[in-house]
Amino acid sequence: MKINKNIKKKIKATGIIPVALLLFTSCGDFLKEYSQDTDYVRSWRDLDELLIGSAYQNTFAADMLGSTSDNQYFIHFLADELDEYKGPCYEEGSSEYDGKERVFGYYTWQARSGQLDTYAGFNKENDSWAEYYKLINVTNNVIENANELEGNTEDQRKGKLKVCGEAHFLRAYYYFMLTNFYGKAYDPATAATDLAVPIKTSQEVEDKFFNRNTVQECYNQILSDLLLSEKELAEYGTQTSKYRASITAAHLLLSRVYLYMQNWEKAAEYAQKAIDEHPSLANLRTMSHTSGIISQTSPELIFSMGSNSVMEYTINHLKSFTITQSIYDMYSNDDLRKTQYIWTNGSFHGYKKYPANTKAIKPEKEGEEEVQEDDITYYFKGYYFGLQKQYNDVSDKNFLRSSEAYLNLAEALAYMGKETEARNAINSLRKYRFAEGADYQITSTGNKLIEDIRDERERELLLEGHRWFDLRRYAVNTKYQQKTEITHHYYYYEKRESTVATSLCTFKLSADDWGWVLPLPQSVIDYNIGMKQNTRGERTYTSINL
User: Fold this and answer.
1) What is the model's pTM?
2) Cα distance between residue 497 and residue 365, in whole Å
């Protein structure tokens, strides 16, 4: 298909990885609306269409673990929230998916993320990197093209504010994720020298090899974009769609960024702004199981984009992953999240934050009772188990909800020594999470208060994409440093399709291990001659024959 010169500008490669990896797979419906001989960027509406189709991550549910469409699936496997499950399944011998080998390199913190579990080669490992830079390139083009548009009328002026505000928000978000995957956690003492990822904010193709910017430079870019987004979206006005960036989304993300940077005052300021604009919290005492804390109708949802696949690997089948027992034990019996966020079958703990759609199951045999099926869990013949049917339109990692604002506010205030205000913020959340009559109030002080707030964050944000980043930043926190060791287990079987495990390997990530920073994809290092790789080493493990 021929492409007009202005459209070519939209799909120029970043130059950070080979051009072929960054070309769009589809020009999108927007391109079909005009003749090939016209100037496509006539107004801000054309750029708005480009944002919708190519700058926001697509909303979909992955159909299997490690699906090539879900390029950030690995975020849940890095920390201490999941471990491989080896125990009784709801259906003997069932192995509905077998994707654990696709996540092996991330899950066991290998020197290369694509490492096969046989150590005989590598899976593709640059999908996430390529996806982020492709999306960033679209935002670069939107911003530059918007600046060339006329703004004489009120519609033109407001339209430019809208597309620029959303593009700046998205670019900040993508650089935030890249920086925290491939750079060290923000440490005020070393951020100016620690390497993160290359920054590119122009739409032009540059005939050069790229080098990595520092963590400080990346955070400066993130803040610059978010502050511009805040200004532009505030002037634009109310955004009604939860699938488009809004002023509240910008404020909540700013509070997170400042919290990571250990700028407590700013973190608290922006968390409070987000709360003032969107104070709603779901009351678990009254919330129906068909609603879900993570859903389009949740009163807490502020923004969402991208995929969800968490349901596909916390399913009670052979070779699946379970929420760790240590995390499950953090919920007291009067904490409603223990049953509303998690479902259990014996020692297996599955994910239950999405809404359930119920329908009756007809008895298979005479004398059996009719039961209710839902797409998250159901009870049948003595077993609770999860299904792969549930397709939710809210991401399990790229979304913002009001609970985080209360947690960010409480943590920042505790570091500032404003303990009464910190307790008020965290208890404002907890009162909606416990059974009627339960003693939910946190009354601690000092470091114990900080520990309690961090524990509350772990319980509330379970499998929402925060835990890995949180553990990294706690390890460099100047107020109260907390380092963690993580243990993951990996079972080997007679063959891929087998149900007979032959050995159990135990992998440990120590507190000061090099594995707390992901390796850059090898293809990126090979292409950009001279780009420095993150420190790597040999990943050792212990093995027990079964």
Assistant:
1) 0.89
2) 31
Alpha-carbon distance 107 to 84, whole Å?
10
DSSP output for 162-210: HHHHHHHHHHHHHHHHHHHHHS----TTTTTTSB-------SS---S--
CB 541 within 8 A of CB 505: yes
Give CA–CA dist 229/176, Å, rounded.
15
Q: How far apart are CA 375 and CA 358, in angstroms?
A: 7
Please provide the DSSP assignment of 59-123 as one string: PEE-SSTT-TT-TTGGGGGSSSSEEE--S--SSTT--S---GGGGHHHHTT-SSTTB-TTSS-B-
Strand (E) or helix (H) holding 304 = strand 301-304
**What distance in Å separates the CA atoms of residue 316 and residue 94, rounded to the nearest whole number?**
9
> Could you report the per-residue pLDDT of 159-210, keeping only the tens digit for each?
999 999 999 999 999 999 999 999 999 999 999 999 999 999 987 766 667 8
Contact present, 101 and 492 (Cβ < 8 Å): no
pLDDT number for residue 418:
98
C-beta separation of 252 from 219 below 8 A: no
Q: Per residue, what are the HEC states of 503-518?
A: EEEEEEECCCCHHHCC
Give the N- to C-terminal CA distance of the chain in Å, as an integer. 58
pLDDT tens per residue across span 28-40: 222 222 222 224 6
Q: Which residue in 374, 387, 392, 430 sits closest to 297, CA to CA?
A: 392
Q: Is 217 exposed, middle or buried (0-12, 13-18, 19+ CB in 10 A)?
A: middle
The 3-state DSSP composition of the chain as helix, strand, coil percent (nearest 5) reads: 40, 10, 50
- Phi, psi at residue 401, to the nearest 5°? -135, 160
Interhelix angle 215-236/154-182, nearest 10 degrees: 150
The CA distance from 259 to 50, in Å, is 32
CA 86 to chain centre: 26
